[in-house]
Amino acid sequence: MSEMITADLVDLDLSAETKEAAARALAERMVAEGRVTDLDGFLADVAAREAQMPTGLDGGIGIPHCRSAHVTEPTLAFGRSAAGIDFGAQDGPADLIFLIAAPAGADDAHLTILSSLARQLMNTTFTDALRAAPDARTAAALIRGDADGTDTGAAGSAGASGAAEGAGSADGVGSAGAAGTAEGADGASENTAASPGAASVGAAAGSTTAPSTASATASTVSATPSTASATASSADEGGSPDRPFRIVAVTSCPTGIAHTYMAAESLENAGRDAGVEVVVEPQGSAGFTRLDPAVIAAADGVIFAHDVPVREKDRFAGKPTVDVGVKAGINRPGALIAEVREKAARGETTSGTATAPVERSGDATEGYGTKLRKWLMSGVSYMVPFVAAGGLLIALGFAIGGYKINKAPSVMDHFLWTQADSWAALLFQIGGVAFAFLVPVLAGYIAYGMADRPGLVPGFVGGSISLTINAGFLGGLAAGLIAGGVVMAIQKVTIPAALRGIMPVVVIPLISSAIVGFLMFVVIGKPIASAQKAMTDWLNGLTGSNAILLGALLGLMMCFDLGGPVNKVAYTFATAGIAVSDPSDSAMKIMAAVMAAGMVPPLAMALATTVRGKLFNATERENGKAAWVLGASFISEGAIPFAAADPLRVIPSSMVGGAITGALSMAFGATLRAPHGGIFVVPLIGNPFLYLVAVAAGVCVTAALVVVLKSTRRQAPGAAPDGTGGTPSETRQPVAA
Fold it and tell me: Does 236 score more than 50 pLDDT?
């Protein structure tokens, strides 16, 4: 591996007046060294990243950066400006400018060391040393982390080597990485007494390997409060007299190279100063390792400092949370820590509606069945919005224009502004386009769940082929799993360094798409298409008692985990049947039964809290008010707070009511063309009155069962008023959902 920065990549007399000119001057040095192949193309990528968010930081630092296909290897260029250059920081121009160039397929070891520079920029001793560096050789050595600050031939400090080796290991932290971590920690503690050259990126690199471990020990800032008052403050705000306040944090930025790790370092430093334990999960370009669920469970508060969505955000539900942009994590970490402590003191928590009462946490040792479930759920979760949007548009088209609207000509050729049928045709055709994405999105995001972004292309290709050969949803499931497996296999192959930059852009999409296409067209496509046709024919032939039993089964599934995997299986099964322009009568009956059963649990909990409010505490009664709207909108998750607080009574009762509703809906012959909407799509339901009767029956049965079971518990001999052993029902707090 070449050195990321040499003296030839340093300009201590940078004369540029604008950030664009500064980037060009430093990029020209990269071109001269053969690190960048296309100057204008690379600068366009830098400008695109800068447009997302200014890269200036407080303290006189500019850190333009990007991932680009025009970069041959991870590279740093450094410039020092006497006049200063405006990079958008609040405190004024930057005099230290770092241009970071990463290849589109940079490996984890390189990115770990790049992120180490970002962390070290939070160290004033390091930046002061760069401002005082007498020549380019010294500055390059300081940035590399050479032990004496002048040796340009060394490959880097032990800490940097440890970081690189640790990042390349299977779990992100090898033994050398651990050694680098230890050396980095020692170097940081002696920073004020050491010479400027000791402020090495190697030390920071060592420290950054630790946040990716499950235990996150090195990333944890477990600074014990120095005074008794600090300890008491922690106890008052969510900690205890025996331990300081604990915070878990997630940082991420669009590129995942610089700001992600700078925010992590800043939060950790602020936590140390405040006597607070801070454990950070940087979700950067090198990937991320999830925090140990036990660490999250033990935390008193959460900080999200991010400019891209936090991955698996529902892991942190139910805790006091501060949610800000990544630059806030860099510039005002102390204020964020104080804010989350204040929220904890007030008892503010985030909603738990994203999670089900079924345990969803896992780790690298989880079984294949659990992984398979998560992969499939990844595809389904991304598919559902397409289902809802497309299905409702199609249903509205039918409602306005009648059931022959699917025969209307294209609105491109025939559209009259004053004709209702034209608007109906427009809605129908837009919905049809949205529905056409269902199978490709399902397959693409199953592959994404398995192999991350490289799985998207072969997944979408396989899903589209599934539609072409009439393999439908079954084909989409198979295509997604195959695409993810193929990409995972390719990623395990050792690739020459010269090819790494084009792997994610050219090689992986090319090879994986070809393999998935061959398998779908030639090998497994026809058998899957036959199975899909057989299942469709079976559904179309369902009548009488068979249909009623199917409705009861689907009702049980919809109410088992209230938006969890089993619920989604039933929902996907139903939407698969209506995901065509002219669904069969049986498919529409199944959709009606599924939506009716899904409305039962939240509506039943709302009814129970209304008729027998004394059986529920104040929080549950408030949740009951919201459950009326959630249930009416077909959002089963509205019952989760009740199920989490009392699962043995709420879930079985909900399943009984859901089964009754599903069976009655099928028996009444109710049909539904829309995949979502609850009572708001009643005009689109066939036999709407009997459909509402079915929903009401299930709601009443579930509410009655919950009331009876809770009343029996309360009247048990020797039991306290709420049956919990002494705590009155009015003050009992439910388990956070």
Answer: no
Check if the beta carbon of residue 268 is closer than 8 Å to that of residue 219: yes
In terms of Cα–Cα distance, which of 44, 86, 96 is closest to 67?
44
Give the CA dihedral 494, 210, 102, 165, nearest 10 degrees: -40
Report how far residue 61's alpha carbon sits from residue 668's, in angstroms, rounded to the nearest whole number.
Answer: 70
253 in active site: yes
Strand ranges of the sheet holding 321-324, from the earlier edge strand across to the other edge: 277-282, 246-252, 301-306, 321-324
Q: How confident is the model at residue 360 (pLDDT cuts 50, 70, 90)?
A: very low
- Residue 601's CB: how many other CB atoms inside 10 A? 35
Q: What sections of 210-253 are H helices per DSSP?
A: 228-236
Is the Cβ–Cβ distance between 408 and 425 less than 8 Å? yes
Among the options 66, 70, 110, 253, which is catalytic? Answer: 253
User: pTM for the full model?
Assistant: 0.48
Q: For residue range 96-130, what is the model confidence (pLDDT) as tens digits? A: 999 988 887 655 544 565 667 777 777 788 888 89
10 has which bridge partners? Answer: 78
Max mean pLDDT among 66-75, 437-446, 574-583 falls in: 437-446
Which of 74, 118, 91, 58 has the alpha carbon at shortest distance from 282?
Answer: 118
Model confidence at 226: pLDDT above 50: no
Q: Is 65 labeled as catalytic in the residue annotation?
A: yes
Whole-number Å distance between alpha carbons of 226 and 335? 20
